[in-house]
Amino acid sequence: MPEFHLLSSAPRPVAPFSHAVEADGWVMITGQMPTHPDDPDAPLPEGVAAQTRRVMENLQIVLGEIGLDLSHVLQCRIYLTHFERDYPGFNSVYQEYFPADRRPARTTVGVTALAVGALVEIDMVAKRP
Fold first, then answer.
1. Measuring CA to CA, which residue among 124, 32, 42, 47 is closest to residue 93?
2. Contact 80, 96 (CB under 8 A)
3. Which fold has domain 3-127?
4. Biggest CA-to-CA distance, the chain
5. Handedness of CA 110, 112, 4, 61 (dihedral sign)
6. pTM of model > 0.90
7. Is the N end or the C end of the chain the one with fewer CB atoms within 10 Å?
């Protein structure tokens, strides 16, 4: 049976979803926004670099609450609202979170808009050891 994780320390969901769903050791982590977990109504950070950091920090909160970390991540999907403009800035921050020899598989997609007016959203697939 799947296990549905709705976590009190993670950012407040911006829609009706669980922060993560787990089955047979596979963990699907819902795309996180650059909202602050302690003040979800605060303005978003300025620029794609700051928003990417906040999203990655939010993902680490979700992973940590279920006993995992970034080393368990196998795949990421990234959504950027201004792909050509923000792709280099996004990559410069994103690469800080994974060692060069242990980077997850990844897909990056340009989209027309994201919830809460975000510039970036990231979801993940992780595997419990």
1. 47
2. no
3. 60s Ribosomal Protein L30; Chain: A; (3.30.1330)
4. 42
5. positive
6. yes
7. N
